[in-house]
Write a structure and sequence with these properties.
There is one protein chain. The chain is built from two helices and seven strands, in the order ααβββββββ. By secondary structure, it is α+β, with helices and mostly antiparallel strands. The chain has one domain (about 25-135). The termini are far apart. About 15% of the residues are buried.
């Protein structure tokens, strides 16, 4: 009986491992969408917070990548830390909360919500943002 208890404790400890799983490969469709949005743009220095954003101008690429459009020529690529489970699947939405006027920042927690039931089905931590603008200025 003691052997079974130790085995169960070992399994529980192993399941709490802090080793990050490698990010899932981006689908061909998501990669095509990403490439279209990035066409003709060059990256700027990484920033911690978006100066402003509108939820209706977010494009989910995959569980790890969300693009925020400032204008037709300027975008920010947001990287999720650990990935947002179920993000990008039909019927799910990324929900963020803004406190004060600081915008969306590195370290903020976002949740993935089933839009039909309203239940939270996942969460993740917002990472850094990379701004992209036109190559000619």
């Amino acid at each position: 009986m003691r052997g079974i208890s130790l085995l169960l404790i070992g399994i529980a400890v192993a399941s709490c491992s802090t080793t990050a799983e490698p990010p899932a490969m981006r689908s061909a469709q998501a990669q095509d969408q990403f490439q279209r949005l990035m066409a003709g743009k060059i990256p700027g220095p990484t920033i911690n917070c978006l100066p402003s954003y509108r939820a209706d101008d977010m494009t989910v690429i995959d569980e790890n990548t969300v693009i925020f459009r400032q204008s037709s020529s300027h975008i920010y690529v947001g990287h999720m830390q650990g990935g947002c489970s179920n993000l990008g699947r039909p019927g799910y939405a990324l929900m963020t909360r803004r406190v004060g006027s600081s915008g969306l920042c590195h370290g903020d927690i976002a949740t993935v919500v089933d839009t039909h039931s309203g239940f939270t089905v996942g969460s993740c931590v917002i990472g850094d943002f990379t701004p992209f603008g036109p190559a000619n200025g």
